[in-house]
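Technical appendix A lists one of the benchmark inputs used to test multi-chain prediction within the project. The record comprises three sequence entries:
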Amino acid sequence: MTDQDKKGFVPGLLKGMGTTARAMTRHAHTQEYPDVSPQLPPRSRGVIALEESNCTSCMLCARECPDWCIYIDSHKETVPPTTEGGRERKENVLDRFAIDFSLCMYCGICIEVCPFDALFWSPEFEYAETDIRDLLHEKDRLGQWMATVPAPPALDQGAPVDQPEPTESAPSEPQPAQAPDEDPAP
Amino acid sequence: MSTFGEVVLRSLCVLIAFLVLPLLVGQTEHKLMAHMQGRLGPMYAGGFHGWAQLVADGVKFTQKEDIVPLAADKPVFRLAPALGIVSYLLALAVIPFGPHLVAAGITGSLLWVLAVGAIGTVGTLMAGWSSGNKYALIGGLRSAAQLVSYEVPLILAAASFAMAAGSFSLVSIAHAWTPWWLLWQLPGAIVFLVAGTAELQRPPFDMPVADSELVMGPWTEYTGLRFALFLLAEYAGIVVVSLVLAVLYLGGWTGPFDHQIGPFWVLLKGFFFAVIILWMRMSWPRLREDQLQRVAWLGLVPLALLQIVLTAAGVVLTT
Amino acid sequence: MTTYDIFFSILGVLCAASGLAAVTTRHLMHAALWLTVCLATLAGCYLVLGAELVALVQLLVYVGAIVVLVLFALMLTRAPIGRSHDHDTPLLQRAVALVIAGSAAVLLGAVLITGVRDGTVQVHGGSTNALARMLFTSWVWPFELLSLLLLIALVGALAMSRSLVPARATRRTGEDS
């Protein structure tokens, strides 16, 4: 506290005390997690849910998975022709679909590549286990997560809504996206 | 026999105050610091806002292994925490909570507090040297330098209060107190508060235990209960400094209805100073070693001498 | 034999024993710590004799400041843990010290024993009030002289430590040029 630093010394100290006092009057930022569940955004990457009826056992997700944590077993079944004299069709039947969440790195590539919308992100995250082997979720457990998947986000304002059929929207969507991609290429 | 019983009762009261008040200050520090940093602090132990956090900490400390390093000077290492604790326990015994409510009524009680406080510093030095650890040794050196420097303004400020009251007894000083001491003794109170905080090695004067460079200073090698004793001594030190300052500068039990709730006023005023000591910790960065000495010798000592001149002039003019 | 006598005897024995330990121990820091015990028990002796102010000032100045300074100096220079023979004094010096200490003790004891041969002596003036009265009336000039001496020592120490700094600085600049 000599004369030359007295100018900034005491006001600086008082300012520091004022800052902490002001912080005390404001509400704390603490997340009281187990008591108050967090308000996660709907597209949080919590757990991967499986819509089993959409899955065709195409294995794309299992192949693209960077750490190979998706296990798929399936067999082919012959479906009798629907019309008289028609040809028999073969169809994949899913026997096992499992994701090992002890390996999963939550990259979401499986969900991106799924051509039939069978995999979804769910914001649920409370599935810690005491045994690491219990983190292997089989298809019934993956199916249970479907109930927690939030509704798809609303379309942006001004987005074209010229596709009336909701079931066809998925395969038709990539086409307008592809068109601008291919245009500048040639 | 009745006097013996009274001595036991008084000692027990001091012991209970010694065990409860530091925990109160510690819990206040937990919560105050948390809220000043936008956090909530302990919320679980004990149920309501984590009131039993420090009790839980104490239980945890007792369960830990008591390690004495191989390179340590074992008897000194073991004895060191006891000195700090005992010194503040003895200091707490003479603090008056009312005109007749003193555990040990000795006439030179202000001097007693300063004298036994000095024993605690020897404990810190013993801890620093006997650990056989260079961080602890450097911490001990720093605390020795700091304690010697800040002892001077602390004693000068205390001398000013004693001069103003014409007595070394805390009870007489509180009796002699008048509201205009608030202005007259203000520099002395500031010096006492700052030097007292520095004597306790509390932030911003925690260069001896600077955790980023010295791990934990003289306490580096301590574990379990012995470490807890050092922590308890630190918080007991805050209690002693705050209560002494409350008696010296704010008139102790003086206040509305002081015949009925005198001890309450002492505790309230002491709590006020304890909060200021905690608040300083949360607001200010740590002083560097040279700044520390500069504040003591160029800031506090002249201010304390000025206060003594002021007090002497006041005493001469009014009597 | 009153309680005071018992306490005084205990503290006196402790004081003498710790003083002896301070000069005989081979642990350098232990010597300083034994000195602390010695000074603290001496303060206890003063307290038992009724000289409260002297006891507390003894504690404050010797234990709080001087021993801390001694410990500081030891830690700053050399304070090995365990026994050390680096600072042992020669045998002759020890013998001389023993003789001087012994003769001083005998002299003091003789004076005290001859002085109070006929029983107890009432001593007044140990209390804070009496001490203050004596210090500021009959002994005020020695007291002031002593404080002046200390002030001179303080200023002298400051001057010595200050004058060294520019001297070193000029030497360094001289080497540079």
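Chain C is about 80% helix and 0% strand. Chain C has a mean pLDDT of 81. Comparable benchmark entries are summarised in Table A2.
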